[in-house]
Amino acid sequence: MLSRRMFTGCAICAAIGFVADDGSAQTPSGIKRTITARTDGPIEGYETLEVIVDLEPNFVLDWHTHPGTEAGYTLEGDAELRIKGEEPKTMKPGFSWLTASETPHMLKNGSQATKLFVTFTVQKGKPLATSVPAPT
């Protein structure tokens, strides 16, 4: 039986393109993603995706990892980013971050809509993200 946390994590992964191959995939309420570019590389076996992510107020993107790096920039809104082994970070317009491959992280949106620009450089053929339990 799926727990609520696991179901939410799976739904979120699909919404941000973790499972979907194109911008037409359905997304759960609370999040919208738009793939603006998808290219092979920078090395064989990897691809780079550029994605605009829109989060509704108070939306939670549960703990997950990526098979490559995630680099992001906050365009609008505010949120809290948690990365395993680091202090929580407050995301406001102009805030940028980099998450190393396979590093658990999560995001809790604030009381306003938030817009992010995210670049994923990940291994081809692997899910863009995998839900993981909260680190201890």
From TrEMBL:
Task: Report the residue ranges that make up the Cupin type-2 domain in this protein.
Answer: 52-114
Question: InterPro entries this protein is in?
Answer: Cupin_2, RmlC-like_jellyroll, RmlC_Cupin_sf
For this protein, the record's PANTHER family field holds: CUPIN DOMAIN PROTEIN (AFU_ORTHOLOGUE AFUA_3G13620)
Full protein name: Cupin
